[in-house]
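WARN retry 2 of 3 for item q-0093 after timeout on previous attempt; input resubmitted unchanged.
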Amino acid sequence: MPIYKILLLSFFLMASLIASIKAQDPVVAHRGAWKENNLPENSIASLTKALSLGCAGSEFDVRMTADSMLVVNHDPTYFGKDIEKVKYEDLKSDRLKNGEMIPTLEDYLLTGARMNHHTRLVIEIKPSEISKERGKWIAGEVIKLVDKLKVASKVDYISFDIDILKELIRVNPKVSTQYLNGELSPKELKEIGVSGLDYHYKVFYKNPKWIQEAKDLKMILNVWTVNNKKDLKFFLKHKFDYITTNEPSLLYAIIKKSEPKPKWKLVWNDEFDKDGLPDDAKWSYDVGGHGWGNNEKQYYLGHSIENSYIKDGRLYIVALNKTHEQLSYTSAKLTTHEKIELQYGKIEVSAKLPRGKGTWPAIWMLPETIKTNEESWPLCGEIDIMEHVGKDPNVVHTSLHSELYNHIKGNQLTFFNTLNDVFDQFHTYGIEWDENGIKFFIDGQLFFETYKGQRGSDTSNEGWPFDKPYFLILNLAIGGNWGGEIDPIIFPCEMIVDYVRVYKSNL
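OK item q-0093 returned
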């Protein structure tokens, strides 16, 4: 399978499990994700672990040495040495318990920015133990380094010192800032220009009105440091933007457990990952040249590598200007294998359509009863997920046919509309089908919907024959009653299919 298909499918299969979490991921690892693996807090290792978990943010503390080196450490001392009063060289000989030296801010930021498209780097600038002015100067040096390393888009700033945040805002009013101390209301912070509040969880229990006030003011809502299940659930319930915790894995477990069950479960698919003919375990062929009830001009061949083949992760259904048994054209018509019965669920086919007059590609369904001769068309029913005729470029049709309502009578249940580009772009054509009706989708957007009994009160097999097993068909017809005049310059023409996916309800 091509690597892009592997990556896309892996993402796709996991999406139903994690998309809702990541769409509004609140998890900020406090001093990195250190606790679960007994890593040093504020270490490169704890940051790396937070990145591997995909946390929304990883928080860390920044101080400055006597010789102006910005380092990452929570306490004002490091192995008994006062960080602000010693040089960086004096700190390098003492190692964290995993062997790391005290990290510099530069190393930390570069590690945090590398191959990271999700985790925010939350810099807590510690107030200076020497003076307020030095604290403001440190803030300026931090923002300079962030800009120099070109990581500003990944950074948020927090501090217990409101003057440090004011200095950051003065230097760049667009920076993201959150205040930690807990005594200022959201309105007061908003007036200063601070982006949000990141208060101890007890502050919010004491001032619950601040939660809604912050939301009304469109401010960032963060809370620290929340570690037990009861409190974590409280702040999840109140939809905080971020929850800073020493227990990121626990918080993710709670989120996953509280998320609603995904609606759909993938039960069958073909990603076309093996070059050559289509997989006989998944696909069969309709073979012949009798016009198929529509006066079509092609002869459908089975197992013809010219007319249906897989290459580079895609299925090609090809029509050729090539004589076969008195017909001037050959093509292919694939049907899902007889062992694969489809009744209800969600079906998606990603496809790129052929261009030119005379082409008639289709993605559609017939019931198993037509194979066994228990029913004939149109009594059996037909579900047309996508049809396109080249004489009407970009106009896509969906239809349902039954004994009472079909195209011969001109009263089929149908809808059509024009898309931007069906020839050079892949579009996903699909249905969601249950005992109540069928919805047709294109690229995930509802295109058309119809329900059992929509026409009068008729819910019989003659009016609604869609409560039984069907099979899927992919074909490219040429000419015929609807395909019409054939332009000889269109050949070879092809419908390209990127994937076929079938789901069942998971509810």
